[in-house]
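Hi, here's the filled form for the chain we discussed.

Project: internal
Contact: R.S.
Residues: 391
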Amino acid sequence: MLFSLKSTQIFEKNTLMGFFEIARKRLAGLRGSSMDLKRRLIIFSFLFTFLAGIIVSEDPLKTVWSISSFGEDDFFHKPSDIEVDPHRSMIYMADSGNHRVLVFDFQGELLKIIGSKGQGPAEFLNPSGLFILEDGRLAVADVDNNRIQIFDKAWEFVNSINTKTVQVADMIFNDNKIYTISSFGSSGFSLDMSSEKDTQPLFKILDNQGNLIQSVSVDDYPESHPFLRAIKHRVCLALLKEGRLYTPHFAMNVIHVYSLEGKKLGEFDRPLPFRPDDPKIIKQIRKDGVGFMMATYDFITKAAKIGPDGNLYLLTFAESSMVRQRPRKDRSVALPPIRMRIDVIDSKTHEIMRQIEIEGDTKAFSLLNENHIVYVYVDSEGEVILKCIQY
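And the returned structure, exactly as it came back:
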């Protein structure tokens, strides 16, 4: 059962006081009787347990619906992103491993399958990121085809934006500009290691034709090794309506804040239940002219969204992935999915307002409204599940 100390907040204060007032009066009425102390303690214990049970059993997270298959025995494969169109009550999922985009309504019913594997219009190679434009059109980062495809509100193909000079795995459209990152969701293995400096861009700004306008980087954590540099500079994007751009890091506990012109306005971190390990190279192999590298690092933030309340929602790892990988006595026993949560960050103070526990191995999420979240995760049996909760 999902439970947090905030569970008690679902009760009105006077309701709780009413429960305890009943208990107080009941015990007071026993004082004048011949009942001994032992029996009074037993009744008090029963009442306390009863009340505590009511409080704990009330879970603030309610499953609204959950699906793992749809249509005629169709299933998800390597989902990468979820976006919501609240005006039309539609949920879009980048089903990257199946090279398509799925459209659901807010009740979890499949409405449309957009695209298939290929290189033509309305065809994809590992679509990774999604964005709903202001007029309701859908933008899809067709990452391995080096383009962004645009679809109208009837889900018909409109046009492609060529991005061959910039790898685009996810993007945000704003005022004729496209803010892009090169690694996102299930495309995380495809890290950008093109920089020859000891730092590299966190994100890049394109015009609406796909031409590079600006590369935005920081010198806060220089790194000479290209693989480590790519890991340290991997971020996700979230844009506040007031014009502030957030870039939470995938493998470091830091969130940068930028203006729309790419000027750094500040940075902050947040409390974590573990101390993240710094990324380190553990193996490098070169065979037949091909290099292979392995690195150790802790996952921190996997995705970011701005909620209807204007606050920042971060898909956060709630335990150290490095600690889980340490030697174990019994390797035959599979580890449970890594614990995850969604941190709700006040956009003004940058303080954590709430932590919402969700299933481990969650791949992507979005917000339907101010009290419903939809996310996709892989359970302990390897089944991929799309779930909607009320929080």
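Let me know if anything looks off before we file it.
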